[in-house]
Structure formats: structure tokens, C-alpha cells
């Protein structure tokens, strides 16, 4: 008996997730970073799978992989699908690659079923979203939008090599970055499928969900300067303990977070000096990560928090300095794209849910250029950036058919830009 061609493509998709999950610079764990040999191997595999699906594959000197649907009949604007294929250190195999492989498989299904697109359709595999090697952000997606931050070119990796020198070694004219007409233009639409990396879909018992937007995010570095002293001899009145001050400030972060619905507030990084058993901590540095669905809400949270931190430092009469290291504004996914995704989800599961992403994605960057949409896929325990990251075959299958429906719907009824 002949197997259902959709099932054949779905089973190839599962195999490819496993295969890409083995392409790693470390045999003990999955690590695949920008401009590495392993990324070249993964890129070659992606190109062969794209060609095999009927797309025309190419790679640029940044290591971005592009699969274009070959057609004479299609017109602009374009519909772009994709995600990133780099990983964090000791990663799971779904974060990023799932969105790329799902898009290749969806296009293969559409081609096999004789679909003729009205618009140009591209599958994009971005070379660097995680920013592990050069502490950068969204290199691949920004390159395609012509919004690449060229200040990253002087960043060094842990071996002291600059991004510029590595790119030039690969034959790239780094001066031409952002000069040519970008692949992703303002009238286009970009859609990304990604594991949720959070617990909402699991709690609702749903395979997929529609993303309404991506939260605003701020990282604030705080430095507390007290006075170090002997743990055994300095009485409480004479102490300026930077660590107890920090403890109180971290609780203030938690308080502000608890007071603002749908916000997040975390202190995950802290350095204590001199960090000795018998010394009063004289200096502490820590980083606050704040998120809120909308930028105005984040700013309000920051103001509340800063006034609390000021009050704590004043009461304790201790030196305190804060610096905003990173600030990313929230984005809203396009309402027409959300509608198309919701109707595709409704065809493949009982209930549709829509929510904001607390994590950043390539979509966040691309939304500065064109209309965007995202589909989230349930992952076990909301776990990500971890080798136990897991999305079930059943959920991936539901996501695949949803993706096929969403692509068809948007291509047929490409919304006018209002
Ligand atoms: Zn990702």
C-alpha cells in the first residue's frame, strides 16, 4: 500500500531534526555557533534538503541559507518563512531548526499537491540568532533586512578574532553590508514557527498557538559599592554590606514584577567581591532582566523599580549605580497575519489561543522592516536552551499541517498594507 505523501514528508522532517541535532562542535552536547565548520555542514544539509523539496537553495557569505520557490508566475511582495539554525551552547535540537525544517516540509507538501503560488515564497535559515560567538543579536535576519548593525563587525570571539576578519576570510566584502537591496522589503510578510520555550501551551493542552507580539525587554546592570571589612570584628552599625543591600534590591525586583500583570523580572547574574567567607562584601554587580508585553508598561515598571532601589540605597547610605545595557521595544505581530494563522490553527486543533512571547526571536528584528507573524509549538515543561528540550511528533505534525494552511491562506489572500 502506498503511504500518504504528507506522512512521508512529515517522517522526513522528524529525521532531519535528529540529523541536525547531531551536527555539533562538541561530541558530548549540541553546540553550533556562527561561522563554524559545523554551521557549514548544517548549511550544506539544509541546501540539499531544500533542493530535494523543489526549492532552489543558495548560501551567502554570512552562512544564511535561502531556499526560493522557482516560478515565473509569482509576483511581489514576497512571503518569507524561516527561523535560525545556530544554537546556544549545550542546546536542544528544536530551538530554531524546527522552524526552518517545518517550512521546508510545508513547501514540499504544497509543491507535491500541485500548488502554484501567487507570490514569491522563500524559506530562510538564519546564521546567527543566539549571538553566542560575538555577543551580538539577530545577525542573519538583520542582514536580510538591510539593518545589520555594523558595529558588531569589530566584536571579537573568545580566540580574539573579529567578526569582520572571519567574514572577509569567507570572501565577504564587509563594506557592502546594508548597501544592496535587501531580500526582505517593507511590503513583504515574514512568518516564523518556533517552539514556545514557555509553559502556556502545555498548560492549555494545545499543540500550537498564535503569537500576538514579542515583549519589550530591558537589561539593567547595577553596581553596589559598600565597604569591605572583617567578618568577625565589624559591628552592624559600621557595616556597608553590598550583598545584603543587593538581597533587598532583588526582592524589590520581585515585588515590582508581582505587582505588574504579565510582566517578568529576574536577577540571574551576580558577582560578589571579594567573595570570601570571612569578608564583608564590599562590591556587588548584578543584572536585572525586565520584560513587559508593551514598551510603555516596561518603562513604568522601570520607573517604579528605580525609585525603590534609590530608597534602599539611601536608607542604607551605600553607593549605587545603574546602567541600562539593553533595551528592546515590544512588537505587535500583524493582525492580518495573526488572523490567517488563527484560521489555520482552527482547522487543525479544537481551540485557538493567542499570547505574547516573552522571549526574543528573529521576528522581533524583522518586524522593524515588514509585517510578521509567529506560530508557537508546545514544548515539554516549557524547557529550552537545554538538551532535554522536546516537542512531540504529534505536535510537530499538527504544526506542519497548520503551517501549510497558513502559507496557502496568506499567499492566496495576501493582505494589503494598511
Ligand atoms: Zn530560537
TrEMBL record:
Keywords assigned: Hydrolase, Manganese, Metal-binding, Zinc
Cofactor notes: Binds 2 Zn(2+) ions per subunit.
Organism: Pelagicoccus albus
Coiled coil ranges: none
Residues at which Zn(2+) 2 binds: 95, 130, 385
Entry's family note: Belongs to the peptidase M20 family.
Cofactor(s) annotated in UniProt: Mn(2+); Zn(2+)
Annotated positions binding Zn(2+) 1: 84, 95, 194
Annotated allantoate binding sites: 219, 278, 291
Official protein name in the record: M20 family metallo-hydrolase
Keyword Manganese: yes
A Pfam family: Peptidase_M20
Assembly, per entry: Homodimer.
Keyword field contains rRNA-binding: no
The Peptidase M20 dimerisation domain, residue ranges: 219-310
Gene3D superfamilies: 3.30.70.360, Zn peptidases
Amino acid at each position: 500500500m502506498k503511504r500518504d505523501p504528507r506522512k512521508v514528508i512529515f517522517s522526513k522532517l522528524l529525521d532531519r531534526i535528529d540529523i541536525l541535532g547531531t551536527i555539533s562542535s562538541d561530541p558530548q552536547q549540541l553546540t553550533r555557533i556562527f561561522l563554524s565548520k559545523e554551521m557549514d555542514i548544517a548549511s550544506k544539509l539544509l541546501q540539499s534538503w531544500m533542493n530535494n523539496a523543489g526549492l532552489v537553495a543558495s548560501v551567502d557569505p554570512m552562512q544564511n541559507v535561502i531556499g526560493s520557490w522557482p516560478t515565473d508566475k509569482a509576483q511581489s511582495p514576497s512571503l518569507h518563512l524561516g527561523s535560525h539554525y545556530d544554537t546556544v551552547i549545550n542546546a536542544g535540537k528544536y530551538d530554531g531548526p524546527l522552524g526552518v525544517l517545518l517550512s521546508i516540509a510545508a513547501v514540499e507538501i504544497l509543491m507535491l499537491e500541485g500548488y502554484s503560488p501567487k507570490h514569491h515564497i522563500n524559506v530562510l535559515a538564519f546564521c546567527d540568532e543566539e549571538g553566542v560567538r560575538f555577543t551580538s543579536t539577530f545577525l542573519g535576519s538583520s542582514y536580510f533586512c538591510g539593518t545589520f548593525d555594523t558595529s558588531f563587525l569589530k566584536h571579537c570571539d573568545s580566540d580574539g578574532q573579529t567578526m569582520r576578519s572571519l567574514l572577509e576570510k569567507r570572501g565577504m566584502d564587509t563594506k557592502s553590508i546594508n548597501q544592496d537591496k535587501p531580500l526582505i522589503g517593507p511590503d513583504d510578510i515574514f512568518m516564523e514557527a518556533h517552539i514556545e520555550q514557555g509553559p502556556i501551551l502545555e498548560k492549555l493542552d494545545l499543540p500550537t498557538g498564535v503569537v500576538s507580539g514579542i515583549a519589550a525587554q530591558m537589561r539593567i546592570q547595577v553596581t553596589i559599592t559598600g565597604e569591605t571589612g572583617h567578618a568577625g570584628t565589624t559591628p552592624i552599625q559600621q557595616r556597608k554590606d553590598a550583598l545584603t543591600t543587593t538581597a533587598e534590591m532583588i526582592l524589590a525586583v520581585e515585588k515590582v514584577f508581582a505587582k505588574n500583570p504579565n510582566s517578568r523580572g529576574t536577577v540571574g547574574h551576580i558577582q560578589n567581591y571579594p567573595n570570601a567567607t570571612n569578608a564583608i562584601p564590599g562590591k556587588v554587580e548584578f543584572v536585572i532582566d525586565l520584560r513587559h508585553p508593551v514598551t510603555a508598561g516596561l518603562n513604568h515598571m522601570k520607573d517604579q523599580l528605580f525609585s525603590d532601589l534609590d530608597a534602599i540605597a539611601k536608607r542604607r547610605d551605600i553607593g549605587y549605580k545603574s546602567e541600562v545595557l539593553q533595551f528592546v521595544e515590544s512588537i505587535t505581530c500583524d493582525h492580518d497575519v495573526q488572523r490567517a494563522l488563527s484560521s489555520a490553527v482552527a482547522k487543525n486543533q479544537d481551540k485557538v489561543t493567542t499570547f505574547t512571547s516573552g522571549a526574543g526571536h528573529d521576528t522581533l528584528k524583522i518586524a522593524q522592516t515588514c509585517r510578521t507573524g509567529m506560530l508557537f509549538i508546545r514544548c515539554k515543561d516549557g524547557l529550552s536552551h537545554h538538551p532535554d528540550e522536546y516537542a512531540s511528533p504529534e505536535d510537530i505534525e499538527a504544526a506542519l499541517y497548520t503551517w501549510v494552511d497558513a502559507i496557502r491562506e496568506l499567499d492566496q489572500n495576501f493582505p494589503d498594507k494598511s
